[in-house]
Amino acid sequence: MFSTRFTETFGIDHPLVCGGMTAVGTADLVGAVANAGALGFLTALTQPTPEALAAEIVRCRDITDQPFGVNLTILPTITPVPYDEYRDVIIDMGITIVETAGGNPAPHLPRFHAAGVKVIHKAVSVRHARKAEQLGVDAVSIDGFECAGHPGGDDIPGLVLIPAAAKVLDVPVIASGGIATGAGLVAALALGADAVNMGTRFMATTEAPIHENVKRQIVANSELDTQIVFREFGNTARVARNTVSVEIAQISGHEGATFDDVAHLASGARARANVYGEGDVEGGMWWASQAQGLIDDVADCATVVHDIIAEAQSIVAERLPGFLAPQPATTA
Ligand SMILES: Cc1cc2nc3c(=O)[nH]c(=O)nc-3n(C[C@H](O)[C@H](O)[C@H](O)COP(=O)(O)O)c2cc1C
Question: Which domains does the chain possess?
Answer without folding.
Answer: 5-210 (3.20.20.70)
